[in-house]
Amino acid sequence: MATMADVARGAGVSIATVSHVLNGTRPVLPHTRQAVLDAVEELGYTPNTLARSLVTARTRSIGLAVSAISNPYFTEILQGVEAAALEQGYSLLIADPHDDPVHERKVVQLLHERRVDGMIVAPSPEPRELLAYLGRHRVPTVFLDRLVDPPGDGAPPLCDQVGAESTEPTARLVTHLAGLGHRRIGLVAGLPGLSTTTERITGYRHGLAAAGLPFDERILVHGHSEAAGAERAAAALLDLGSRPTALVTANNAMTIGALRALRAHGLSVPEDIALCCFDDFAWADLFSPRLTAVAQPSRDIGARAVRMLLDRLANPDRPTRTERLPCTFVHRTSCGCPDGQEHPGDPAGSASAGPAAHPAVPMAHQERNPS
Question: Could you tell me where the DSSP H helices lie in 252-328?
Answer without folding.
Answer: 252-264, 298-314
